[in-house]
Specification:
The protein is an alpha+beta fold and about 120 residues long. The protein folds into 2 domains: about 80 residues, hypothetical protein PF0899 fold (2-Layer Sandwich), CATH 3.30.2320; about 35 residues. It has 2 helices and 6 strands. The longest helix is centred in the first third of the chain and has 18 residues. The N and C termini lie far apart (about 40 Å). Involved in the maturation of [NiFe] hydrogenases. Required for nickel insertion into the metal center of the hydrogenase. It comes from Streptomyces neyagawaensis. InterPro entries: Hydgase_Ni_incorp_HypA/HybF_CS, HypA/HybF.
Length: about 120
């Protein structure tokens, strides 16, 4: 399950980013995961819960934004869903596409700091 190594990397990077902003703990992390990134969102969520223990993200939530795979057909200017398994054939002009516009993302897009103790 490579999601555990991905979750660990997300936690390490989010911790670095939070500390750079002067925050000691994190309440939530938002990540964008493309349909073709090879990551199972539920498995990533479970791995995140396991890997966060004992870190500055111990109580943090993981929000996963799923990004559908979209391809572009230059000859007819059509953007279309690639689907799973991926199919790069334009449904409009019946030609193969060579340009993937989205679907491979795996990035942290937001870190929510934990509220300061009262």
């Amino acid at each position: 399950m490579h999601e555990l190594s991905i979750a660990t990397a997300i936690i390490e990077r989010a911790d670095e980013m939070a500390r750079a902003d002067g925050t000691d703990s994190v309440a939530a992390v938002t990540v964008r995961v493309g349909e073709l990134a090879g990551v199972v969102p539920d498995a990533l969520g479970f791995a995140f819960e396991v890997a966060r223990d004992g870190t500055a993200l111990a109580g943090a939530r993981l929000h996963v934004e799923q990004v559908p795979a979209q391809a572009w057909c230059g000859p007819c200017a059509e953007e279309f869903a690639v689907g799973m398994p991926p199919f790069f054939w334009c449904p409009r002009c019946d030609r193969p596409s060579t340009e993937l516009r989205s679907g491979r993302e795996l990035e942290i897009t937001a870190i929510e700091p934990a509220p300061a103790p009262a």
